[in-house]
Specification:
Layout: H1 2-67, H2 70-73, H3 77-95, H4 107-126, H5 131-143, H6 156-163, H7 167-207
Organism: Ataeniobius toweri
Keywords: Coiled coil
InterPro entries: BAG2, BAG_domain
Length: 208
């Protein structure tokens, strides 16, 4: 009889322990599921912030394009002043939107980003003295950031540096180079248009 009670007590304890273990596993599973859902929301948040950051860059570039456009130079001074005030107001409002997305980097990635940024900065400084040469260098750097075979030579040294950067930094470097290339192409077009106008004016004045 006593032995039967002991066995019953042991079985009761085992069942109780087993129930507690299941309960803990269940709670752990629910917490893990919650964290998984939060992780998806965090990634969605970062993607949305990155999209907003790109939109901000795009708007700023378009405002600058309007300000430097040939159409802006071809209108009367009064209208140009009014449009300049409007574009400056839009520029200020856009710049007031601050978006910051932190990137977690190890030491190697930090150093790689600094090297890549320094290389691009040096080329940008040279653009004023050698626009075409600088543009070709920017194209070679951009070619190092794309997967498809580019029509221009690849800067392999820069490519090795970019590969060592964090993935988010690689995307930002590529976007910056794309913007710089577009800006240099637009600048060259504006210079050619202005030079062509100067030639036409010279011909016209010569004709008189």
């Amino acid at each position: 009889m006593a032995q039967a009670k002991i066995h019953a007590k042991m079985n009761e304890g085992a069942c109780s322990k087993f129930s507690r273990t299941l309960s803990m596993a269940d709670r752990s599973g629910r917490l893990l599921e919650s964290l998984d859902q939060l992780e998806m929301r965090v990634e969605a948040l970062r993607e949305a912030a990155a999209a907003m950051e790109q939109e901000r860059e795009s708007i700023l570039e378009m405002i600058q394009s309007v300000q430097n456009s040939q159409e802006m130079r071809n209108i009367c001074q009064g209208e140009r002043e009014e449009l300049t005030l409007t574009s400056n107001r839009l520029m200020g409002r856009t710049l007031s939107v601050e978006i910051s997305i932190g990137t977690i980097r190890n030491l190697q990635q930090e150093e790689a980003l600094q090297k890549a940024t320094s290389i691009i900065d040096e080329i940008v400084k040279k653009l004023l003295s050698d626009m075409e040469g600088g543009r070709q260098q920017l194209l070679a750097l951009h070619a190092a950031c794309v997967t498809e075979a580019p029509p221009v030579p690849i800067d392999q040294k820069f490519q090795a540096i970019v590969i060592s950067c964090a993935l988010e930094d690689q995307k930002k470097i590529k976007r910056r180079l794309e913007t710089l290339v577009r800006n240099t192409e637009n600048a060259e077009k504006n210079i050619k248009i202005m030079d062509h106008q100067k030639l036409e004016d010279t011909k016209t004045n010569g004709g008189h």
